[in-house]
Amino acid sequence: MDLFKPVAAPERFHPHFRTLLDDAREPVRQELMRWVKGFPDRDGKFVYEFQTTFNSSFWEIYLYALFREYGFSFDWNAASPDFALQAGSSSLIVEAATANAAEGKVKEWEKEPGTLTDAVMRGEYGELNREAMIRLANALLGKLRAYRDKYSKLSHVKAKPFVIAVAPFEQRDFQFQYDRPIRAVLYDEYVDEDAYRRNPASFPNGPPTVNLGFVEKDNGASIQLGIFRDDQWQEVSAVLFSSTATWGKVDVMSKAPDAQGVVWSTWGGKPDGKPEPRTGVLGEYTETLADGLQIFHNPNARIPLDPAIFRRAGVVQHYFDQGRRRWVHEEIDNCLHMRMVVTLTPVDSFGDESHDTPVIG
Hints:
Shape: globular
Radius of gyration: 20 Å
């Protein structure tokens, strides 16, 4: 499957896809082709959708490459859900979803290269997290309904853990959210970094974790948070999530010999996942496919997901240990929170005069 051979009319190209056609991006195109190797185009539309809508297709490619790296085997006999997997002696079903911008809201790609929103520049994340909660909850609900209406009736799905793999592409600067919105949506645990920023002396142990109960939409409607706190979502075994599975991951993994750029990242460190900033340059900074991956287990799932399936260094898993009667948060002191890449791409490859332009991934 050749992702970069145009099958859509140029005017239909997604802005991200159009950027990748630049001659200077050949090494990262080749890296993505390594990710997608062996991935079947089951409905004959995948390449077109990648070129015209991009994010949802990119997320599926990432998941496929991730599962392949884990050594899972794939059953492609059924058209849906997205992935029927065998992980050793365990079977599981994974359905991919993306949180997208609401109608009328600014899309994540509608920004000037190299820029951040004013709020993020000030270190204020409350509004970003609120919007993410709303859009993530909407994406998850859509997949729960699909499971109840369709997937649960399929023979290859019955009696297997059902995992929703969701990625946030709902707004500019989405890569800064780490686990704040998704933890609130699933467990009603919101880490209030803005409260800490306003008055750090009041929180000597770092940002407080609070129970919000609900999040309010722009129209005043409320969305319940903590959907895994009771059995209303018992069909969903777990949620797989990453806010770092972006084009920046392709950039840092491509190892292009003459790539120029800077990588800013934050990693969980000791003690208890305290954020640690790291700065590197392309070609030296390292990252794996699994870095940034988080698995949120549903303690009320009808069919639980075995934490051993995704257990790996740097992969955060949140689950309730029945034997020890306590919550476990694996690898929070060894995980990728956020990464931003600024690459310098010669504009002359587009036919303009030669100078460098930053491309953020």
